[in-house]
Structures are given as structure tokens and as C-alpha cells.
Design goal:
Number of helices: 14
Structural class: mainly alpha
Organism: Piaya cayana (Common squirrel cuckoo)
Pfam family, one: Glypican
Membrane topology: Lipid-anchor; GPI-anchor
Radius of gyration: 31 Å
GO cellular component, one term: cell surface
Keywords: Cell membrane, Glycoprotein, GPI-anchor, Heparan sulfate, Lipoprotein, Membrane, Proteoglycan, Signal
Largest sheet: none
Length: 318
Amino acid sequence: FLEAFESLLRSAENRTSSLFETAYRPVAKEAAAPVKELFTDISLYILGAETTVESAVLRFFDGLFPLVYSQLINPGITELSEDYTECLRLMRQDINPFGHYSKNMDTELSKYLWASRMLSQALSLGIEVINTTEHAALAKECSKALVKMQYCPHCQGLTLIRPCVGYCLNVMRGCLASVSELDAHWREYISTLEHLTNEKAASHDLEVAVMGIQNSINEAILHAQLNGPQISATVDKVCGQPRKQEADLSSDNIVPVKEVTEAQTFVMTHTSLNNKRREFTSYMKRSRIFYASIAERLCDGDLVMRDSSACWNGEDVV
């Protein structure tokens, strides 16, 4: 399930990288690192890292602004010092060169990634619980009961006799009494997982938001280019004027990039996520009684005698 979502993120990252390589080639090479960092931060957020979508988006646009300003708004700049670059980073949020597009991207992603983050954390908790109970130590009385059930018939030369079903269930339930107490909590946990999965699958808005990152960035850059003169005037007042050469900065040179839908890729990814959701939901429903039915699972198959044949009841063969 989470692998399918990671695939969605990789697809969105590739689309965003392609945007810079095709439409904003002057900044493509330097923009590769901020793009990579953005999607890494999103992935870490989903996995439960101490970060937020807002901080990831802010960091991305803070890093993008110096590139857009020096290469697209003012392509005549010949030198951009570290101090000047830092000034552009620091003032980016104040002058808001990308308009409402950066904020909208943050809002959309924060809204739809929350359920994914909660689901990821819930799955990690479930794995931790299962691993803990899997390695639970057996009480001394339990060990004795298991030995008696499995090997005492051998002392009488009855090596082919297996325990009776009822006897096996009594022994296993006694051994697993503490584990079976998790049943109510486990059922509640499974219900929570189902709720989070349904929240995540309520619509394909999550996929739209993630796959729409490219278009949000494109609109943000276009907004900055179209408002280049005003942005430059503000930057000059705060950061000073960098060294530049003559260049044609008219808006006629701005070529908007049409929104790329890549419908086929999106449909395939969305279908994959839907299939994973259905598989995951089905698996969760089957595991709802996991802790309540451990004894029955253990006393199944070759461990016990299920037909009318003779079996060991703990005292004798019946």
C-alpha cells in the first residue's frame, strides 16, 4: 500500500523535474536539488518524521526564488553572491513573488497527506505490537503444559498419537491468556486502520494534489515572471542591485507552459492505489480476530487429531 504511494511520489517528482528541463531550462540544473528535497521531505513526513508539509513547501520556494529571480526574472544578472542569494531567500516570504500558488500548494498537500501520515504511523505501531507479542516469553507453567501435551504420550510408546483438539485449545488458551487480552484493543486498532484507509480513499483528491505539484510550481513561476518589474523594484530596495548586463525582460518572452495532465500515468497510478486499498482493507478485515483466534490457529492442522481417531487428552488415550 505504502509502496504504491511512494510510486505516486516518484512519478510526481519526475513530472516536476521534467517541467524545469523543458520549460525552465536555465534553472533546471540548480533546481534539481530543491525538487529532490521537497519530495524527500514529503516522504519523510508521511513516514512520521518531525517535520511538516508547510516547512517543506516554504523551504522549497525559499530555495527556488533566487534561481527564478536571477535566471528568469533578471536573466542579465552576471554575478550573484552568497550574501545576495541569502537575502533573496530571507525576503521571499515578505514580498511573496509566487503569489497565492505557493500557499495553495501547501494547503492542498497538508490536507490530503495527513491521513497518509496517520496511516503510516498506525501501521508502524501495529508492526511493533506484533513483533513484541511474537517474542513474548512463555511462563514456566505454560512450558510444562506444552511438554505434557506434546511428549507425554511418547513415554508410553505412543509416538503417533496426537493431542485432542479440546485439550490443545485448553493448553493454548492458558498459555496465551495475557496475549488474548489484546483482542479488544486489536479490534479497535483495526477499526482505526479501516477509518484511516477510507479517509485516504475518500476520493482521488490526494492523487490530484500530489500529481498537481508540477502545475502549482509552474503557475507560481509564471506569476513571478509576470510580476517581475515590481518584484525587482522591491528586491533592489532591500538587497541592493546585483551586477547585470542588458537583457530583454519583456513579458513577450514569457512562454506559459500548458498544464500537463499525463492522464494515462495518473489513471494507472490511481488504479494501482485503489487496488492496494481494496487488498489492504480485505486483509485487515480478516485479521480483526487475530488475537482472539490464536489458540484455534495453533491447534489446527497436523498438531492435533481432528477426526474420530484416538487422541491424547493429557491423561490417557481416548
